[in-house]
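[job 0412] stage=complex_fold ligand=calcium ion status=START
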Amino acid sequence: MSGAHDGTETTVVVVEDDHHISDLVALYLRGDGFRVLQAGDAEAGLAMVEREQPALVILDVGLPGGRDGLEACRALRATSTVPVIMLTARDEEIDRVLGLELGADDYVTKPFSPRELLARVRALLRRAALGADQGGPAPAVHVVGALEVDTGRREVRSPSGVVGLTTREFDLLAYLAANRGLALSRRQLLDGVWGAGWYGDERTVDVHVRQLRKKLGDLLPLSTVWGVGYRLG
Ligand code: CA
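[job 0412] stage=complex_fold status=DONE, emitting structure tokens
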């Protein structure tokens, strides 16, 4: 998947104004075979993403100038479903990342170990890669009401066309669709979608559910099961 091993290069854009952190992240990712491009503020980062079409973006919340990382993420999501990992420095930033429904796919809290970040990058790219799910279930098209959830093409189709979802939103919907009719706890969803090694907060599930509801509206037959979690269909 990552670069040098198979002769192709996977590009990652790192948007972070702290040179020490940015260089450390770049060093680790390059060591793993990625092509890494660095930007120091939101404007440069957004332009770089548009120009380079990277496979993944690492975006710091605290950026100088007009737009911080949260606003940059929102701007990015208006035009792109590229996987995004946010870097956050403080608890209140985590609350904002989760609460603002920006469409980030994951976040890492500073100080983080580069090894952990690299693991997140690889996990997210593995999920995002078309057809790279060789160890997982065979591709399927789940029909959920008027929606088709196509795990082979990683595409959700509504009567009015393809719905743009982020990597995590798609994975969550596909997991719910594969377990239609079952009430799933937030922990089960975290383990099933984010992976058992993911240390995130259960609120993350709620944030992604809200995004799915916002994007799919009445087409999504998803119920909240009080005291448990969620059930599709
Ligand atoms: Ca920063």
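Residues 1-5, 130-135 have pLDDT under 50 and may be disordered.
[job 0412] exit 0
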